[in-house]
Design a protein that fits this description.
130 residues
């Protein structure tokens, strides 16, 4: 069963929900951080973000924001976490009902089978001044 416990602001520790895998809590916190970058923290702070938060109804993500989220997920978790491919497997009703919990579960499943999902892709990334 998915947890509806709120997610604290990025950088704060998230206690694991009863029965939830600690990895899922970490992934939810990471996705929340990405969403803060994409839609702005003032919007997310007005909403309680949880595993049950939907991308369409609750967050009202627009197509460009989905693309930005897909890019950040790819960068953080590797090519196996393909948001657009994940959405392509769903019908319109399922896409509109997609929750952060659905996304967290998908990432957890893919990251479990992929070495890049363990943070290798993000850890290997270097920042250079332009």
């Amino acid at each position: 069963m998915a947890s509806d416990a709120p997610v604290p602001a990025p950088g704060r520790t998230l206690p694991a929900a009863p029965g939830a895998a600690p990895a899922h809590a970490r992934i939810l916190a990471e996705i929340t951080g990405m969403l803060v970058e994409i839609v702005g923290d003032e919007f997310l702070l007005a909403e309680e973000v949880s595993m049950g938060t939907t991308l369409n109804d609750d967050l009202a993500l627009e197509s460009i924001e989905f693309v930005a989220l897909a890019e950040q997920l790819h960068e953080r978790y590797g090519a196996d976490v393909d948001l657009m491919g994940f959405l392509a497997e769903k019908d319109m009703e399922a896409i509109l009902a997609l929750s952060l919990g659905d996304l967290v579960t998908h990432i957890g499943r893919v990251a479990h089978r992929s070495p890049a999902g363990s943070g290798g892709a993000a850890a290997a990334r270097t920042v250079t001044a332009g």
